[in-house]
Amino acid sequence: MGYALSALEADHRDLSITLDSAGTLQIVGAPADPKALTVAAEIGADLSAHRSQALTVEKVAWADHILVMTDDHLAAVARLDPDAADRTIPVGRLIGRADIADPHGSWFMAPYRRCRDDLVRVVDRLFASPIARPVRATDP
Question: What is the tally of structural domains in the chain?
Answer without folding.
Answer: 1
